[in-house]
Amino acid sequence: MLSLILTHPGGAHKDELLACALLAAAHRVPIIRREPADEDLADPTIAVVDVGGEHAPERHNFDHHQLPADHPPVCALSLVLQHLGVYEDARQFCDWLEPAEWFDTRGPNVTAQWLGVDRAAMNKLTSPVDVTILRRFAKATRLEPGEPLWEILSYIGADLLEYLRELRTRIDFVAKNSELWNLDGHDVLFLPRTEPIQDDASASIGRYLENTGRSGSVAALIYPDRRGSGYGLSRHNDDPRYDFTRIDQEPDVHFAHARGFVAKTSASDISRVRQLLDLARV
């Protein structure tokens, strides 16, 4: 068990902030921002993050700056995710992780080139949430459990770990319970209602399809509505073959988005749900 999380002082970046957040969620210990001493690096109860010139996970030292310039992009966050055993799932299911690794190790210009976007687009993606949390983290020298910023970091780390650890279970659930309907050259994925109803079923379905390589063939999704007794119907990857505004006047459809990508029905009979799907075909 850890007694302390230590990272560098000065400017703060997402990689060490998120790495500290994960460790804070897992161990609930203080975070100190200062340069490490030799005894810190030698002490396995002190996690040294993004500083220290050493990657030694057996002693909880997670620095990447000593790696050669041509090393594949990897940052302190990557090393902590590896240590916690969730890195491969994070690379697969957290679309933001690989760009974060590139940004931290290659800088914004090279990352923009790698993403195939204009350099100015990088600044347009910055959020006030990012700015404030990083700025407040940079100004701190010690954060204790119970303090607002420490608790926010712990929430971030806990939510990320929960997402990664539960998503695999949810994907397995979709694989076990879903059906693929082939309709005129494309597929529709149907997930029936179960008890208890699965949280965030539509997001799990999307990840399941990516994981199995079927995302390109599926045009629409049907899944249990968490807010009612019926089903949600939605386009997959904004497929133009379905427009759910076409069913917004049906008596058992209580919501259809004005842009046509999703609708909710109180119908629980599968034959009726399939009829609504047919009516939404363009």
Task: Please provide a written account of the structure.
This protein is an alpha/beta fold. It has 2 domains: 4-165, no CATH class; 178-279, Roll (Diaminopimelate Epimerase, Chain A, domain 1), CATH 3.10.310. Helix content is 44%, strand content 17%. The protein contains 10 helices and 12 strands. The chain has helices at residues 14-27, 38-42, 76-83, 87-93, 97-115, 119-124, 128-139, 148-177, 201-212, 270-279; strands spanning 4-7, 31-33, 46-49, 55-56, 61-62, 142-143, 179-183, 186-190, 218-224, 231-235, 253-256, 262-265. The strands form 2 sheets. Strands 4-5-3-1-2-6 form a 6-stranded mixed sheet. A 6-stranded mixed sheet has the order 7-8-9-10-12-11, covered by helices on one side. The longest helix has 30 residues, at 148-177. The termini are far apart. The mean pLDDT is 94.
